[in-house]
Amino acid sequence: MSKLRLGPIAEDRPVKVTVELSGGIMRDLADYARIHARANGLPEPLPAERLIAPMIERFMSGDREFGKLRRRS
Fold first, then answer.
1. Cα separation, 31 vs 15, whole angstroms
2. Cβ contacts of residue 6 below 8 Å, gap of 6+?
3. What does the buried/exposed string (b/e) look like for 21-43 if buried means 16 or more CB atoms within 10 Å of the residue's CB?
4. Can you give the residue ranges of every domain in the chain?
5. In sequence order, what are the residues at sequence separation of 6 or more whose Cβ sits closer than 8 angstroms to the Cβ of residue 21?
């Protein structure tokens, strides 16, 4: 099995935000949660909502231009 971009999710103190997602994105998140659980040996998937913050974090940490500009500011 190929490695997912999103690894194990660490517990962290959350900050509550509200976002609107299309039904398609929510279904994709639920599918990703199921696959993520299998890939990480979890007995059941995390709620899809728990994947959003780590996915955004992973996206931003992989954005080289963002990192470069952030270091300059």
1. 24
2. 32, 36, 51, 54, 55, 58
3. eeeeeeeebeebbeebeeeeeee
4. 23-72
5. 29
Residue with tokens 């190929």: 2
Q: pLDDT, tens digit, for every residue of 1-50? A: 567 777 888 888 888 889 999 999 999 999 999 999 999 999 999 999 99
Residue position matching structure tokens 């690894």: 7
Q: Tokens 């199921």 sit at which residue?
A: 34
Q: How many CB atoms lie within 10 A of CB 48?
A: 19
Distance CA(37)–CA(14), nearest Å, equals 21
One-letter amino acid at 2 equals S
Which amino acid is located at 10 in the chain? A
pTM of the shown model? 0.78
